[in-house]
What does this fold into?
Amino acid sequence: MRLLAAISLAMMLAAGATETRSHPAPSGWEYPFECCSGADCAQIDASEVRENKPGFIVTIEPGRHPMWPTERRKPLVLEIPYQKVRLSPDGLWHLCINDAGELLCFFSPGGDS
It folds into this structure.
């Protein structure tokens, strides 16, 4: 009986140790799991986003996103096609990138923002 309990406990601990959670946006909604692993997502200012015919151009100055710190020295410029844009639950702009500056998810307020 003890062996079965020990195995069950070990399986529960292993499952909990590998569980990765996303994190909440400043307004309280939860970023989707596939977009982040704790620090990859952040709200960005509308001034950092320009719309063009195929989608959006996002320019992040060093230090303006947790994954693009001041040590980078050059702005990150991403061209994001409309098909990769998600609707923002809080009506604000949000960008999820990895530490190499590659797009994970981008949230637009939609409409005439």
Remarks:
- The CA atoms of residues 3 and 9 lie 10 Å apart.
- The beta strands are 41-44, 49-52, 55-60, 76-81, 85-87, 93-97, 103-108.
- The chain has one helix and seven strands.
- Helices lie at 2-18.
